[in-house]
Amino acid sequence: MSETAKLILEGKEYEFPVFTGSENEKAIDISKLRDQTGYVTLDTGYKNTGATTSKLTYLDGEEGILRHGGYSIEDLTNHASYMEVCYMLFNGELPNKEQLAAFETKISRHTLVHEDMKKIFDAYPTNSHPMGQLIAMVSSLSSFYPASLNPNRNDEAKRLTMFRMLAKMPTIVGMVYKKSIGHPIIYPNNNLDYVTNYLYMTFGNVTENFEVDPVIVEAMNKLLILHADHEQNCSTSTVRIVGSSQANLYAAISAGIAALWGPLHGGANQQVIEMLENIKADGGDTEKWINKAKDKNDPFRLMGFGHRVYKNFDPRALLIKDACDKVLNKLGINDPVLEIAKKLEETALKDPYFIERKLFPNVDFYSGIIYRAMGFPVEMFTPLFALGRLPGWIAQWKEMIDENQPIGRPRQIYTGYPLRDWKPIEKR
Ligand code: SDX
Fold first, then answer.
1. What is the pTM of this model?
2. Of the candidates 302, 386, 392, 308, which has an alpha carbon nearest to the alpha carbon of residue 351?
3. Of the four, 92, 130, 149, 393, which is 20 to 30 A from 332 by CA?
């Protein structure tokens, strides 16, 4: 007998099916609620609402579990290449050697962007934020491939668009960085793997040969995996809802990048470093800033702390903190803000305000320290988050399209004026 949920409304009893996921998560299926009762649910911020089922990523916020395709984030970060994770998000299984080689070869065929994109870049003010440029450049990809825009035209067109999007993002993010420092663009070198090629386009230059430091390649590989997907977060939900109208993938990804820019979401990694630098400039008094974060009358929040789902710890934060120490030691860098970050974490995790609200470091708390040690300016931190999250966005979009999901269109409860008579302007 399948489980059901009973609801009594105005003395009448209704029964709704309970849906159980493969990890025993439970949901009340309310797809017939309004038809049967005339009621809708109200859940601002969707804190209690499941928007879809998905086979891609599993989170357990209480236990601090994150898995992709059933593999733990710990195993993937410690053993997989980013390309293996991208392949698995696209196909549901880790690739064998032949499949991985074919996948990487296919991606390398599409790393160049149309030369006309440079004209769009040139129109941008030099000091405009890289995220604004990224939103525009990704959206402009739709101008160059009109034949393969319709997500439902056929499977080949859909996969070609997915490969183009994955292949061109590092080139575009590299172009954004080079523009921000006034250097000539470095074209992709397809003799290099995906991650090395991105770092080559970022830190290489036209005046000399450039070898990417393997320490940085290894760290970037881990960071991109740690950002690859995260179920129905704000930016992924944005990609899904834009894609649900059958807008093309480039438009949906561009919208996802826009959502990620917000300081409460991916923009937090830039805010964390700026916060740590402010605390350092203010003398490093972490107690003072912890108290500011707790003060309801103070708008300051401890950036990089707290999470909608993780209420125990963010497993990614633990893995990035561990990588932080290793990368900075290997690079021989002593960054004082790392000590400030550790002191903030130590103080906050003993403080009842943070304990009661289950606020722990999230993925953004330590990532910026590594990015800075690699040589990235803070404005590039959120574009790096977008680069990492890209395969997740694409895979979630594909899952939604493959399941032929309906256009996303939530309801609301109106709280404005009742009907009233028109008032000519002379009488207002
Ligand atoms: C990401 O969803 C995802 O998976 C996102 C992400 C991904 O991979 O896609 O994991 C990436 O976006 C990580 C989060 C990065 N953002 C930040 O670090 C910004 C700082 N954190 C927050 O603003 C906040 O914690 C959120 C936005 C992350 C979560 O917000 P919620 O779930 O809506 O929680 P809330 O704002 O309702 O806060 C609950 C309470 C409130 O206090 P009370 O009103 O109950 O007294 O906790 C307080 C908040 O004021 N609070 C904080 C705090 N975060 C929450 N107080 C101080 N500092 C903080 N950082």
1. 0.96
2. 302
3. 130
